[in-house]
Amino acid sequence: MVEVADLLSVRALGLRGVHLCRPEAAVRWVATSELADPTPYLEGGEVLLTTGLDTGRRPDEWDGYLARLAAAGVAAVGFGVGLTHADVPAALAEACRRHQVNLFVVPRRTTFVAISRHVAHLLEEQESVAARAALTTQRALISAAAKPGPVDAVVTALAAALDGSACLLNPDGRVLTGPVGAGRAEFPLDEVLTDVRRLRSHGLRSAAAQSKPAQSVSVHPIGLRGRPSAYLAAVTPAQTSEAQRQAITTAVALLGLIDEQDRSRASTRRHLHDRALELLAESDSRTAQLVLEIDQPATELPKRIRFLRAMGDEPTVENAAAALERRGVLAGVLAGELCVVTEPARAAATAAQLADDGLLVGIGNSVLPTDGATGYRTAGLALAQATAVSGAVAWDRVVDDGPLGLIDPDKVAAFAEYWLGGLDSEQLETLRCFLRHHGSRLKVAEELGLHRNTVRNRLAAIEALLPGKLDDPQARVSAWIALQSVPETLRP
């Protein structure tokens, strides 16, 4: 930025300050005018050069003249002496003080054209310096993007370019990188979190900016498509310059490209992992190993594995799969279910975490990778027994519960009502005893203290109320399953 003080420091021009209330005022250009009101031709930021040819015939005219120039935002008034006026009129100097406008004297030997040429040179030099600085900053940011850990490197390089601080947050407001930079101690995290929450509903189309005298903050979504993957917060001391804005824009673009590359790699990895899981579920461990090595050559399947299968709403399943992959766990989504393969020792802890996330989880049997089909199938059977109360169910527990562990309790109860609904407690106890002694009427009579004929009559009455004959093995199995849902306390 070229300032009024820069122009006055050019010795060759011989300019002399009369009233310099704002020497740091930015100079955008030079204008020459002898009009009593040149403001219609000004844009603000100009150094206005005049000899007062058509102004100041009366002392009170200077006040209105300067009031209009101050309102137009001129940077300074350069008053040429030696033609219309031998020296700066006192009324002009007083008006400049009153309206806080810079005033300097242009000596007779200095042409207005020379001043314009010097200002143009200063502006050109400034633009050249700014361009070189911007190029250096862009090179630093691009170089950072090529380093290992490119996201952290770009955020750090941006903070250095801003001479302030920078931070990267995920859409939920969790800090991913930073704050870093010289101004990290003054990083306004609470304000940035508020902006992130407000911007989330706008996708990639919106950014936020706040400016204060001592600090400027901007928040930008990161990503090239879909929803933002993160938000970049950039903080500069005082007002953000054009060069700093360019640096922020470059950093946002680079982080977007890095994010797109990460998404592409993650998508490829996800497809490979899904295919490997499918192959393991079919017991094709050899091909599954080859598929995994495409992603990571050093990958090796454990000697024994357990399948985990989990159900829940789609976002929860997708988020859980992504979280497991970030931890290096083989996970994917097969047929709408979360499918995980892990070492047996890690299965219970992984399942417990998934259950805490609100998923229903089934843990399969511990198997060799070459027998993955059994592990996948038993995980599905265990998942069928999982409820909101139980959360995670292991195949081992299903086995301990026997065949009834594979049947839904509500279905067993309905089945028992169908089979045994017509029997009283005495008949139920007789039937239990009969099945317990594998159909031996003699042993039933001995246990219940009844005559053999009484037992025969009771069993005939029971059989008349059942859907099947007790001599049929299938009927005996059905009766035994039905009896498991009848409380043992229902005895005569």
From TrEMBL:
Name this polypeptide is given: PucR family transcriptional regulator
Domain PucR C-terminal helix-turn-helix as annotated: residue spans: 428-484
Ranges for domain Purine catabolism PurC-like: 25-122
Organism listed in the record: [Mycobacterium] fortunisiensis
Taxonomy, superkingdom: Bacteria
Classification via Pfam families: HTH_30, PucR
